[in-house]
Amino acid sequence: MMLTGSEIVKMREVGSVVIEPFDPIHVEVNSYGCHLADLLLEYRSDRIDPHGELEVVEHHIPPEGFVLYPNRFYLGAT
Q: Which spans of this chain does the record mark as coiled coil (predicted)?
């Protein structure tokens, strides 16, 4: 289901949608603008096995930005 910005606000007010922290300035026409956190995880394993050991490298994103390379698996949070 696609929601308009005003529907997102209404659903948040009644508790059907949770956005924390919420800032009305980020409500857009058909979305809510999220921003990437300053930490990325890069998985270096050939296979992502949830039951096995994974080689993971943490990258802290500096204010000037961070270059993402192709053919690598990154996991970020908003």
A: none
